[in-house]
Amino acid sequence: MDKLRFQTALINWFQRHKRDLPWRHTKDPYKIWLSEIMLQQTQVATVIPYYQRWLEKFPTLQSVADASEDKILKTWEGLGYYSRARNFHSACKEAISKYDGKVPEDIEEIQQLPGIGRYTAGAILSIAFNKPVPLVDGNVIRVLSRLFAIKKDPRRFQVLFWEQAEKLLFKKEPGTFNQALMELGATVCTPTNPSCLICPVNSFCLAKKQGIQEQLPLSPKRAKTQIVHLASALIRQNGKILLCQRKQPGHLKGMWEPPTVSFIPKKESAQRKIEDFINQWGAIEINTEEKPDVLKTSRTHYRLHFSAFRANIRGQSPSGTVPKIDSRTTNDERRATVLGYPTDLSSAEWIPRKDLASLPMPGAWAKFFKAELKGAK
Ligand code: SF4
Question: What structural domains and CATH numbers belong to the chain?
Answer without folding.
Answer: 3-215 (1.10.340.30), 226-373 (3.90.79.10)
